[in-house]
Amino acid sequence: MDTQEPEDPGDVLQSKAENLFHELQEHFQALTATLNLRMEEMGNRLQDLQRNVSDLMVQAGIHNAIKEQMVKPSLGNQQTE
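^ that's the sequence the OP posted. Answer follows.
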């Protein structure tokens, strides 16, 4: 004979809701970890790109010309005061 009492529907619902919440939490943590990793990779790629662009500008002689253009206007402003 089965002597178990029927489960309370409120308890069943609460148990299912808790299971769903834990599953959602696990998925959210996995997604967060994936996004953090990808953002770190993107940051590294951007730093590499900045270094490569700077190297190319130096090789092309543009880097120094840009610095000179930035310095000249600021020197000109100081002289007129």
